[in-house]
Amino acid sequence: MRNETSLWRESGLRLSGFGHYYPRLLVENGSADDPAGNAVDEAVIGRLDVRSRHVADEEETPAYMGVRAARAALEQAGVTAREVDLLVFSNWTDRQFVPEWGPHAAHLLGADQALAFDVCGACTGFVHGVQTAAALFGAHTGWRNALVISSERFSRRVRPGSKGELIVGDAAGAAVLSRGADADAGLWDSLLISDGSGRETITVYPPNGWIKSSRDLVSIAADSHADLATRMLARSGTKMDEIDWVVPHPGTGQLHTAVRERLGIPEERFVTNYEARANTGSASVPIVLSEMSRDGRLKPGDLCYTPAVGSGWYYGGLLFRV
C-alpha cells in the first residue's frame, strides 16, 4: 500500500449545505410485486426490500430535478446562485453527446458566473464531483463556493418488467462546498479508485441501454468497500468506531448486509434510504445527507464517511466533519 495521507484536512473546505428533490410520482411495491427473477437477480438482489420508489416524468429531466435540489442546498448554505464559482454535475443515466447538463443547470439556476461541466463515474459520481471541485479550489484561490449536483433517472436504465425495475428510482441531490472550515472540521479526505479489470461487473450497452450486472457483483463490491475503508481510515488515522455516520451509496440489500458484516459497522450508524427511495445512482449519498440534515440527525461535529461503488469499475468515498 502506498504511503497515503488525507487530501483536504488542511484545505479549509467544508460541505456547507445539502438539498434533494424527488419526482412527483411515488410508486409503491406491493408484496405481490416480488418476482422470482433469474440466477443473477437472486445473487445480486435477493429478497425485495424496497417498498417504494420515485419515477420522473418527461418534465423532470436531470437538469429540472438538479436545479431544485441545488436551490435547497444553496439556501441551507446561505449562498446565492450568483456566488457559485463552480458547478459540477454528475449523471450517468441520461448521458448524451452534447450539450452537457451542467451549463444548462447553471443557467436555469441563475449561476451564470460559474464554470459548469459534467462528470460521470456511474454511482460514484457524487464523490467524483466533490473531489473534482476540491481539486479546482486549489488552482483557483479566489473561488469561494462550488455546487455539486447529482441527478439521475435510474428508472430508464432497467428492463421493464424485470426485478431490477423494482429496486431503482429517480432523484437529485446537491451539496455546496465552501471555503471557511474551522480547525479539524470540514472535508478531510476523498478517494476515487478506478479498476478497468472490473469493467464487466456492471454494463449498460446500446441499443436498449438497460443495466446488466454480473452475479459476482456483491462480492466484488464488498471487496472494494473493504479496500476503500482500509485505505481511507489509514490515511486519516481514524478508526471505524470513531465515525458517527456511514452513508453509503445503496446497491442492494444483499450488498448492505455484506458490507456491514465485513467492516463491523453497527446497523444504527449505517444509513441509507434504500427501502423508501430505492437505488438512485449518484444522487443516493447527497439525498440521504440532505434528509439527515433536515430531520436533525446530522449535527455539527459529526464525522461522516460516504463510500460508493460504480460501474467502470470505480469505488471511492468522502470523509468529512459537519
From TrEMBL:
Residues 233-321 form the Beta-ketoacyl-[acyl-carrier-protein] synthase III C-terminal domain. GO terms for molecular function: 3-oxoacyl-[acyl-carrier-protein] synthase activity. It holds the Pfam family ACP_syn_III_C. The keyword DNA damage does not apply. Residues 117-196 form the Beta-ketoacyl-[acyl-carrier-protein] synthase III N-terminal domain. One of its GO terms (biological process) is fatty acid biosynthetic process. SUPFAM superfamilies: Thiolase-like. The keyword Cytoplasm applies. Keywords: Acyltransferase, Cytoplasm, Transferase. Coiled coil: none annotated. This is 3-oxoacyl-ACP synthase. It comes from Streptomyces shenzhenensis.
